[in-house]
């Protein structure tokens, strides 16, 4: 896969600030970028937007919104306002999509969490439509079910999209979270047939893994059948950029230019 078919999530290169990310991604000929809120914290968004436009990188998404669940209405209302602020940032940067990590609250049943997620998304949708922003629900690996997301499979994400039934709501498929699911082929095709496969993220799942969140692998470092899933996604007609999203304490401690070299060479090899 050539660099112009790839987009990088700025959190992949966590040691770099937003301007270093944009400068280095553009210099390497990457096709696009997804911007993490942590990377733009405290930045002048007008300046960032101008740099993004000048870079010629395709703006993909803001990462992330969500976390709609909570034990009280006050907590859920506060979460909704946080999401509205994220939408304002998304709009200010000219990003057309926001990735949603939907949330889960310990002590609540999965059904209770899913109901609160649906209510939060429904309440946020008018703001998203006004901002011209699509919401991409990202299913997370079940290891995150207790406190990060009750949406753990493509089926759960598809069902939630059916429940909301709105063209601004779709799915971000991240191989790290869904590679293990035997229903992935059918649910990916179901998602694409409904025109809601909004995004496709890649990395690798290491075995053994040292940390469930911060030890993702560069493609080829783990056990995910990456080419199989890639062919599945592309076979649905998906034509968006392939987004690299890696959280790695090991690689964050390395020279970030060398790290980017490793990412690009592994993607060229695996997705040739």
Feature tags:
272 residues; alpha/beta; 8-stranded parallel barrel; 45% helix; globular
Radius of gyration: 18 Å
Spatial separation of the terminal alpha carbons:
5 Å
For the secondary structure, the number of strands is 8
Q: Biggest sheet: strands, sense, closure? A: 8 strands, parallel, barrel
- Helicity level: 40-55%
Structure report:
The chain is an alpha/beta fold and 272 residues long. The protein is built from eleven helices and eight strands. Helices cover 45% and strands 15% of the residues. Strands 1-2-3-4-5-6-7-8 form an eight-stranded parallel β-barrel, surrounded by five helices. The longest helix is centred in the middle third of the chain and has 22 residues, at 110-131. The chain is globular, with a radius of gyration of 18 Å. It starts with 5 loop residues before the first strand and ends with a helix.
Topology:
Layout: E1 6-9, H1 18-27, E2 32-36, H2 37-40, H3 45-55, E3 58-66, H4 73-93, E4 97-101, H5 110-131, E5 134-137, H6 154-164, E6 169-174, H7 175-178, H8 184-193, E7 197-202, H9 226-235, E8 242-244, H10 249-252, H11 256-270
Parallel strand pairs: 1-2, 1-8, 2-3, 3-4, 4-5, 5-6, 6-7, 7-8
Helix pairs in contact: 1-3, 4-5
